[in-house]
# Entry
Amino acid sequence: MIVITGGAGMIGSIIAWHLNTRLGRDDLVIVDSITHENQWQNLVHREYAQYLDKDQLMPWLENRDDIEAIIHMGAISATTERDFNKLVEANIHYSQNLWTWCAEHKVPFFYASSAATYGDGNLGYNDADINNLRPLNGYGYSKHFFDQWVLRQIDHGLPTPPSWAGFKFFNVYGSNEYHKERMASVALHTFNQFSHTGTMKLFKGTKTGVEDGMQMRDFVYVKDAAAVVVHFMNASLIKPAPSGIYNVGTGLARSFKDLAIAVMTSMGCEPHITYVDMPQDLQGKYQYFTQANMNKLRAAGYILPFTSLEDGVKDYVQNYLMQEDKYC
# Structure
């Protein structure tokens, strides 16, 4: 059996989709804590053996010997979360408990880190050296703390899972993100805003040298992000890929303006953008540029191409957002 925490979330549910449709696996245990009234719909097309609340997982794992891998996507993912105690419990302690269980029971472990660990990007986006990073918010720090904790286990020769990987996801967009509300991708916000108002609001260029709407991100389609995780999990059952912490992006930064135009064009409409001031709570905590260094992932044997921004947005808009059933 394969355990997926955060399995009712965006990336987790698409990992389950990939396992169902590409590998024919339905022996999945979905673990989550659903709080949004419609988030359950991320699971309606999935085939799985069991659903557990996140607080049921550790007791359920006791004395089990049929777990092939744990894919840990569950976390508080809001970059605006201000209660650090919640972040510590959900993003650090829970992850440490799962790592320890996998180490003791010799089960491969794969978990979600985040590009938010890189902070303002002044130190680059190289997953080969993460020691001196300075995240801009508590969420990014909680993910960075766990990355560092994992590496300390390795450095100190402590027990580890037989195969493991942490994935620093960059700006993931795509189906099944509808419950994320403010934290949803700009692709979804563009579709919704443009559908209701005929325009899309983007931030003005509040930093010297940055034009309106030209803040840059490494946008990665959710199906590609899921494919990377499944690749490492599947490899762990055959000939494991090298364990480590890996960037998951495309290696190519694009602007929010590019993204918004791609969404409106995919809708078959003439693009229209309105530029607004950045909210006060984001000032000083905002990444103006992200671009994943993909060398380490490629060196680990992941050779599949990443979907272009235009092709990913087109699939998202036309095959999901514009359909009566928008869930993957």
Remarks:
- The domain at 2-173+219-251+290-307 is CATH 3.40.50.720 (Rossmann fold).
